[in-house]
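Extended Data, panel c. Modelled sequence:
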Amino acid sequence: MKLIDLTIPIHHGDGRLNLEVQFETPYSFEEHGWQGSVFSMFAHHGTHVDAPNHHIRSGHGIDQAPLNRLMGPAAVIDLSDHGREAGISGDVLEDRGRHLERNDIAILRTLWSDKHWGTDTFWKEGPYLSLDGADWLVERGVKAVVYDFSEEYVVRQANFRGEECEVHHRILGTEIYNIEYVRGLGAITAPRTVIIALPLKLTGLDGSPCRVVALEGVDMPREFTVE
């Protein structure tokens, strides 16, 4: 079995939308003989999971996300030819995603984050998911989608409004979970793998940072009993 870490590291001073990651160490070895740190960050920076209430007013928070929707068999859809300003359509997903099964996690692999994470180019010039691409994912019955690019075209515009985010409304409105901003998807060698994405249990919040891994060479059941 091979474990592949798909998580983007978080650094002090990182951030987006004028929300900066802050690390502080109020308890240090020098003063207390042990170390204890605090951090603050935007819930949608770096590798994270969106909860429905990120864009659906009546949706639930990340603490209520069923864990069995965030782990399990996954299909890699290769889109590495979709680079700058390339829309990912339903027709392309239909052509390349025939191996995706109902209740899978869909992995949309463009390799954009490997090339451009940490730059304005990642946000402003990358590939994006078209609305009919989102429709295809909904119709195929996926339970989550993994992205290594910023999938909502409108967010590259200044002062965008939530009502304009059609892809998020389509995906989250059907309780499909966005697992956003991973890297290293090129390390997955097979068309099918296993994904595990476990967010923090932050009561009522609209998303959470998480550690996302792929497991190759292992079979995982499609359904789980969660206690």
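The chain has one domain: 2-9+43-216. This feature is highlighted in the accompanying rendering.
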